[in-house]
Automatic annotation (TrEMBL):
Pfam hit, one: GGDEF
Transmembrane segments: none
Record NCBIfam families: GGDEF
EC number(s) stated in the UniProt entry for this protein: 2.7.7.65
Enzyme class at the top of the EC tree: transferase
Protein name according to UniProt: diguanylate cyclase
Source species: Azonexus hydrophilus
Catalytic reactions on record: 2 GTP = 3',3'-c-di-GMP + 2 diphosphate
Gene3D superfamilies the record matches: 3.30.70.270
PROSITE patterns in alphabetical order: GGDEF (PS50887)
Length: 358
């Protein structure tokens, strides 16, 4: 009994340190990984998982954290850890799905036996909503002390996650903002080198996608005139409508950011240039065909470039932006691909200096 008290006293500064580290992170996905890194060792378990739901309460992402002991050549044993993000959420075992469903229905943690162990799931709460589940496997249930610790850490995580999420979103449209794009460039680029990490929802589930990626800058034409003629409130409403039209046209796996005032950045997956053009053309047409309140019609210009994971993100962005500028110069309401403009001789071929690795 005495030993337990001492162990708990010893653990408090460790836990505070881990919470401090967790809340120093500025990226929502790294924060999710950090939660597993915090709770796994704290509970003394080797496997912990996080199941994230999207806005539609569908399973969107699964992250597994695994620790194991490795004896190295010098005979010294070390703990190594591995974080794995699963794109194929359709592979989640039915027992785990059933456990999470019980947690959702009861609004509290649940435990069940699973493959000779106890499987415990805690809800991640955002207000009254379940945002996901923290799951761990062990041969016994959580003690009252551990239960209080897990609940406390999950509460800190959820509150901090909500704060981060707000700072990465544009208030008018709810889209991710420029800061989020810039913060996430490196992670997006490395994910692109692993095509299985981007997935598409079909029948409520997500499946693997492969292929190339394209970055587009989409800019409303003559938006200043709209503001000047009808005022900023109408301008805001038009931007919101244009956002909803774009969201409805893109797939859920495509990424859409509000980059600046009337400027948006989209990153999409497409097998080839013709398919990418087709996607952007659909966006242009959807906006051109829409009857907007007051202004009636509006158009957008689009410049895009292929994402090459070996080319700096800022360079890809600049290629798309230069192509957009050219589309504006040539009369607006049109789409230009950077390579098309290079082939046409409008732009010089990219030099080797631009293709450095980051
Ligand atoms: N209503 C509203 N206007 C905004 C917002 N952000 C930027 N703007 C306005 O968007 C306008 C953009 O003007 P410009 O950059 O000259 O571009 P444009 O008039 O669209 O012309 P082109 O891009 O050349 O077709 C400016 O008047 C900004 O004040 C916003 O959040 N709401």
């Amino acid at each position: 009994m005495r030993m337990l008290t001492n162990a708990n006293q010893f653990r408090v500064p460790g836990l505070l340190g881990k919470l401090g580290m967790m809340t120093s992170i500025r990226d929502t996905e790294l924060l999710e990984q950090s939660l597993l890194r915090t709770l796994g060792p704290l509970l003394g378990v080797l496997d912990t998982s996080l199941y994230r739901l999207d806005d539609g309460q569908l399973l969107a992402r699964v992250i597994h954290y695994h620790r194991s002991k490795v004896v190295e050549a010098d005979g010294v044993a070390r703990m190594v850890e591995r974080i794995e993000e699963i794109a194929q959420v359709s592979d989640v075992q039915p027992e785990i799905l059933a456990l999470m469903e019980n947690v959702r229905l009861l609004g509290k943690p649940c435990t069940r036996s699973f493959a000779g162990d106890m499987l415990t799931a805690y809800p991640l709460l955002g207000g009254d909503e379940v945002l996901g589940y923290f799951v761990f496997k062990r041969d016994h249930e959580a003690s009252p002390n551990e239960d209080a610790t897990i609940r406390g850490v999950l509460e800190v995580f959820s509150n901090y996650y909500a704060l981060l999420d707000v700072s990465q979103r544009d208030r008018l449209t709810g889209l991710l903002n420029r800061q989020a794009l810039e913060n996430n460039f490196e992670r997006i680029w490395s994910a692109m080198a692993r095509p299985d990490s981007f997935h598409e929802r079909a029948d409520g589930r997500r499946s693997q996608l492969s292929g190339k990626f394209w970055l587009a800058v989409i800019d409303v034409d003559h938006f200043k005139r709209i503001n000047d003629t009808f005022g900023h409130m109408v301008g805001d409403e038009i931007l919101l409508l244009a956002t909803r039209l774009m969201q409805a046209t893109f797939r859920s796996s495509d990424l859409l950011y509000r980059y600046g005032g009337e400027e948006f950045v989209a990153i999409i997956s497409a097998e080839n240039e013709a398919i990418a053009r087709n996607v952007f053309e659909r966006v242009r047409l959807a906006i051109e065909a829409h009857v907007f309140p007051r202004i009636e019609s509006m158009t957008v210009s689009i410049g895009y470039a292929e994402v090459d994971p070996e080319v700096l993100p800022v360079e890809v962005l600049s290629r798309a932006d230069r192509s957009l500028y050219q589309a504006k110069q040539d009369g607006r309401n049109r789409i230009y691909d950077f390579h098309e403009l290079v082939e046409r001789g409008t732009f010089a071929s990219p030099s080797y200096g631009e293709t450095e690795l980051f």
